[in-house]
Amino acid sequence: MLAQCPCSGGDQGAGPLLFFGLVACAVWLVHRIGGKDGVSRMSKVWKTAIVVVLVAVVAIVIINKQMGSSPGTDPAKGAAQVSQPAAGLPRLLDLGSTTCIPCKMMAPILEELKKDYEGRLQVEFVDVMANPDAATPYKISLIPTQVFFDASGKERFRHEGFFSKEDILAKWKELGVDLPAAPAVGETVPK
């Protein structure tokens, strides 16, 4: 099962709405079969069986829809892959989604880090909802998850949830990775 943001409610499509609509129809149908005077013309066992079957059918339809229509999962098209680390650069990998609130909050931070530390830090975002195969090797349980890799590609730290820019930079420093502040306009970056 793919990790999901606790606040996003998972799939943002019509699946949950369809599910609740069909359950409401099943309840209405069972009520109508029961008769106007409250005397049941149908046993409780049959009513329960109808509801259970309808719920199972809806669940199967939703699961098939999610598995069959996820972008990046069609073998003919090829799933997106996480890029290889740049030689000698530490790497921050953020595994998240474009629909998750904390993930959306991380997006501008990642862009700032990518811009401010270009050539000194590799910053990458993977949308695990669009590319579930790319997230599989990282065995994440919650999004967003930030994975810190040293320059040799070894995982050094992992964080789940929102992580501020200041906290990210402090963690790099704690891990012994010196990321000097971005140079002033016109100043060159020492290498």
Give a quick summary of the entry:
The protein is α+β, with helices and mostly antiparallel strands and 191 residues long. It contains five helices and four strands.
How would you characterize this protein structure?
The protein folds into two domains: 15-69, no CATH class; 91-174, 3-Layer(aba) Sandwich (Glutaredoxin). The chain has helices at 15-34, 44-69, 101-116, 132-135, 165-174; strands at residues 91-96, 122-127, 145-149, 155-160. The chain contains five helices and four strands. The protein starts with 14 loop residues before the first helix and ends in a 17-residue tail after the last helix. Helix content is 40%, strand content 12%. Strands 2-1-3-4 form a four-stranded mixed beta sheet. With 191 residues, it is of the alpha+beta class.
Oligomer: single chain
Looking at the structure, the CATH topology of the largest domain is: Glutaredoxin
Strand percentage, roughly? 5-15%
Structural class from helices and strands? alpha+beta
Q: How many β-strand runs?
A: 4
Question: Total helix count?
Answer: 5
Identify the CATH homologous superfamily of the largest domain: Glutaredoxin
Q: What characteristic shape results from the CA principal axes?
A: elongated
Name of the top-level CATH class of the largest domain: Alpha Beta
Distance between the termini: 43 Å
Average pLDDT, rounded to a whole number, is 75
- CATH architecture descriptor of the largest domain: 3-Layer(aba) Sandwich
Given as residue ranges, the uncertain stretches (5+ residues, pLDDT < 50) are 8-14, 69-81
Helix content: 25-40%
Radius of gyration: 24 Å
Number of domains: 2
What's the arrangement of strands in the largest beta sheet?
Answer: 2-1-3-4
What kind of sheet is the major sheet?
A: 4 strands, mixed
Order of helical and strand elements:
HHEHEHEEH
